[in-house]
Specification:
By secondary structure, the protein is an all-alpha fold. Helices cover 78% and strands 0% of the residues. It has ten helices and no strands. Helix 6 runs antiparallel to helix 7 and helix 7 packs across helix 10. The chain is elongated and about 60 Å long.
């Protein structure tokens, strides 16, 4: 039998390559084995990335179920990075449900948890999971200062690399913000947000 940690590594890599069916199979099997052995650390990892996988497939019920399980397990063993990602995924759910107050609350809570981790911690590359819903909420409410802040954060080097098309719209928006051209910034962000929605980033 393949060891659960190796199954997790397979699934983790397949997730980011877009091989979602394979990722689901490997992460699901790793989770089952981790549950049988009582490995809470691995359970937290599997649940976290199964949540992101469900998010990429726009399966809201699965995201909700996995996020709650991921948060509970991560909290029980003090893994702030996975507590943060669970809150970020709650922010995604709130955006899908049109609850902008919950987007703000969960997104900010996620970023606060990530801020408690040491600089360069591996999990901080996934802050985009909270930043996209926060950016969309800021656009919806007209909070351009927050929109500029979240845009800049999405482009920071530690973040997981964005699709080049998406990055281009964000970079153009940031240039417009800094030139004092809010109308152009909003136009660029609207295009970027629309593209991100089609990719189920939020």
């Amino acid at each position: 039998a393949i060891r659960p940690a190796l199954l997790f590594q397979f699934g983790f890599g397949e997730l980011w390559l877009g091989l979602l069916d394979d990722a689901q199979a490997h992460l699901g099997e790793a989770l089952q084995q981790a549950e049988r052995t009582g490995d809470l650390n691995l359970q937290a990892r599997c649940l976290t990335y199964l949540t992101i996988l469900a998010r990429r497939l726009a399966r809201q019920d699965d995201v909700a179920a996995y996020a709650e399980r991921a948060f509970a397990v991560a909290e029980s063993i003090g893994m702030r990075e996975y507590m943060a990602t669970a809150r970020a995924n709650r922010a995604w759910l709130a955006w899908r449900r049109g609850d902008l107050a919950a987007v703000e609350a969960q997104g900010r809570a996620a970023l606060a948890l990530w801020s408690e981790l040491p600089p360069g911690h591996g999990s901080t590359v996934f802050q985009w999971t909270a930043l996209w819903p926060l950016l969309a909420a800021a656009m919806r409410t007209g909070d351009l200062a927050a929109a500029e802040r979240h845009t800049a954060a999405l482009l920071e080097p530690p973040q997981q690399r964005l699709d080049a098309h998406l990055a281009g719209w964000l970079e153009s928006a940031l240039v417009a913000f800094r030139r004092g051209e809010p109308t152009e910034a909003r136009r660029c962000l609207a295009r970027g947000v629309a593209s991100a929605i089609t990719m189920n980033l939020f």
